[in-house]
Amino acid sequence: NAGVTQTPKFQVLKTGQSMTLQCAQDMNHEYMSWYRQDPGMGLRLIHYSVGAGITDQGEVPNGYNVSRSTTEDFPLRLLSAAPSQTSVYFCASSEVRGAPYEQYFGPGTRLTVT
Amino acid sequence: AQSVTQLGSHVSVSEGALVLLRCNYSSSVPPYLFWYVQYPNQGLQLLLKYTSAATLVKGINGFEAEFKKSETSFHLTKPSAHMSDAAEYFCAVTSNRDDKIIFGKGTRLHILP
């Protein structure tokens, strides 16, 4: 199993550009989520999904869209990038919702918006 | 809403000394609690988790944590620090009534030779 994969590893965008961060898992996990990590702020939940076709907002959803058309994939879209979105983005998955299952994290995408 | 507070953004201990990383939680329902570790330029990996089965939880790499409901705490300890323990550690909380998993701001552990 590859686990949780994220592409790209690094990305530089100009303000106003759009892009999609890809996340895929091959463990048949129901639950997937996106976090951003900023110095001194820890990990903050952006969006999450408890299954295909179901998504919900986390702590910091503004400026980001998600969809979950398959169990495996959970892309994160930045519609109009802003410098405040410069961060490291992590995707994670776990077996089911509402249970103390371990979250498996991807390696992260480092995004810089100029 | 649930939350966790990690006391101390940076902690330094000498090699061989006791490691103590503090986490306090807030939850109106019985919580599930986790400690994750992040090594430089990597994603997070699970150290241990509390699921109400036992208050003293043992994890990987010699770490353990004790759930204390009266103190709303879930502090992480290791009797003897190794240089390889240098990393950032995150406490997280959720419950069986919540789909969100909330992380603390993290504590960076430095090991002094």
Report what the structure shows.
The complex is a heterodimer of chains A (114) and B (113). Chain A is mainly β and 114 residues long. Chain A has strands at residues 4-7, 10-13, 19-25, 31-38, 42-51, 54-57, 64-66, 76-78, 87-94, 104-105, 109-113. In chain A, the strands form two sheets. In chain A, strands 2, 4, 5, 6, 9, 10 and 11 form a seven-stranded mixed sheet that branches. In chain B, the strands form two sheets. In chain B, strands 2, 4, 5, 9, 10 and 11 form a six-stranded mixed sheet that branches. A five-stranded antiparallel sheet of chain B has the order 1-3-8-7-6, with no helix packed on it. The chains are: A mainly beta (114), B mainly beta (113). At the A-B interface, strand 4 and strand 5 of A face strand 4, strand 5 and strand 10 of B.
Q: Which helices and strands, and how do they pair?
A:
The complex is a heterodimer of chains A (114) and B (113).
Chain A: E1 4-7, E2 10-13, E3 19-25, E4 31-38, E5 42-51, E6 54-57, E7 64-66, E8 76-78, E9 87-94, E10 104-105, E11 109-113
Parallel strand pairs in A: 2-11
Antiparallel strand pairs in A: 1-3, 3-8, 4-5, 4-9, 5-6, 7-8, 9-10, 9-11
Chain B: E1 3-7, E2 10-14, E3 19-26, E4 32-38, E5 44-50, E6 56-58, E7 64-68, E8 73-78, E9 87-95, E10 98-103, E11 107-112
Parallel strand pairs in B: 2-11
Antiparallel strand pairs in B: 1-3, 3-8, 4-5, 4-9, 6-7, 7-8, 9-10, 9-11
